Amino acid sequence: MPLRGKSVDLISLQDLRAIVADKVLEGKTIEYKEALPRRQKDEAGKEFLRDVSSFANAAGGDLIYGIREKNGEPVEIKGLQIQNTDEERLRLENMIRDGIEPRIPGITIRPITEQGITLLIIRIPKSWSQPHAVTYRKHWRFYSRNSGGAYALDVPELRTAFVLSETASERIRNFRAERLNRIAAGEVDVIAYDGPRIILHLIPLMAFDPAANYPVSALDRDRNLISPLFYGGMTDFRYNFEGIMSYTMNEKLRSYTQFFRNGIVEVGARIFNTNKEPNIFPATWFEDRLLANMPRLLLIQKSLGISPPIFVMLSLLGLRDLKLGDDYHVLDRDSLILPEVMIDSFDNKLEDSLKPIFDAVWNSANWPKCMSYDESGRRIKPQIIR
Q1: 266 SS3 class
Q2: Which of 1, 96, 193, 342 sits in a 20 to 30 Å window from 67, CA-based?
Q3: Do 129 and 202 have their domain in common?
Q4: Is there a domain that residue 370 lies in?
């Protein structure tokens, strides 16, 4: 399909005209609507919720409003009469939130206005927290999709959907565990050194779709985006079995960024003491580097058409005897496999999203919370200068 694999933010009126010209039929991952649903509690509202949930319960896809179709074939771009696109987007978001359970993370609603024509595209990612039910007039119904469109799930299909949902979280954690084992075994040669290390994973749920395969060669055109996260300096690049890697290597600084073909990003770096005290863990340093540089990693994923949710998983290795503060605040274990957090939108504020991870690090050194935040949860410069 012309739109699959293309970031929804990059879709233009020209792309939609190409769909009509090419007569791209409705199917499992695309559907056309001439007009927007007006109310949640009428039949059009019910159909809207059915379509959204069916995409999430299947392979994901695009709902495109403003295109007239006949027997599933797009025949004309009609456009929509929308006075306030922000209000319309909010209305549709509220319909989805109130009419589908559990909530579907990662949905993007984007109006496209060009040459006096307005259309609206809703991109629904394949969900790994499925199955999602339409809750309509106190009646629950589950839908999925095939090449013929949306259909109601039967009992055996529902049972399968629930099992797949449970295994998705296991696959994410297993991926992290396998990579950490390989790193510990020295199989990732650019960080084959002793001492404290940071390992960061950004794992989209859709990475475990068998069809997830992104052209890593496209990243070669803008190498700055995949340069190592924690250190500057001379950077080398190479393709490998997993995808493409960038790395820095010299006497003091070693770090890398690995982009996998399925959309996962892994970052590894040596924890370098900026204050020259060998037994101090530089907490604010690593927090600031993450907050400053993670946006470009998410931008890579977004540019390749990857949709949230994306799980952020941080692991800190080789911390034995390090302190976060004075002698009273010693990290209580050699490795911190920190709890994952979920980014359900590229618009999420990272300072808020990553705070639970930072809290856990400081908790491990006998602090009540991350001291880089005030009592209201606002990020500040901590009083502890270490």
Answers
A1: strand
A2: 96
A3: no
A4: no
- Regarding whether 181 and 104 lie in a shared domain, the answer is no
pTM of the model: 0.66
- Give the chain's domain count: 2
Domain boundary at 127, 153, 179, which?
A: 153
* pLDDT the model gives residue 380: 87
pLDDT tens per residue across span 205-263: 878 777 778 877 777 666 666 666 666 666 788 888 888 888 886 655 578 888 998 89
- Where helices occur in the chain by DSSP H, the ranges are 13-22, 43-57, 85-99, 155-184, 283-303, 350-353, 355-363
Rounded Cα distance between 40 and 36, Å, is 11
Angle 164-266-130 (CA atoms, 0-180°, nearest 5)? Answer: 20
Does residue 173 sit in the same domain as residue 144?
A: no
Give every CB contact of residue 288 below 8 A, 6+ residues apart in sequence: none
Residue 374 lies in a domain: no
Domain region containing 222: 167-363
Average pLDDT, the chain: 83
Q: Are residues 327 and 208 in the same domain?
A: yes
CB 123 within 8 A of CB 62: yes
* 260 in the same domain as 130: no
Strand pairing category for 254-260 and 139-146: unpaired
Name beta bridge partners: 143: 152
Burial track 110-149 (b if 16+ CB lie within 10 A, e otherwise): ebbeeeeebbbbbbbbbbbbbbbbbebeeeeebbbbeeee
Whether the CB-CB separation of 266 and 187 falls below 8 Å is answered with no
Q: Rounded to an integer, what distance in angstroms lies between the CA atom of residue 298 and that of residue 303?
A: 9
The Cα–Cα gap between 144 and 157 comes to 9
Residue range 299-338, pLDDT digits in tens: 888 888 787 778 999 999 888 888 887 777 888 888 999 9
Q: How many CB atoms lie within 10 A of CB 282?
A: 19
pLDDT digits (tens, 9 = 90+) for 85-134: 899 999 999 999 888 988 888 888 999 998 889 999 999 988 777 789 88
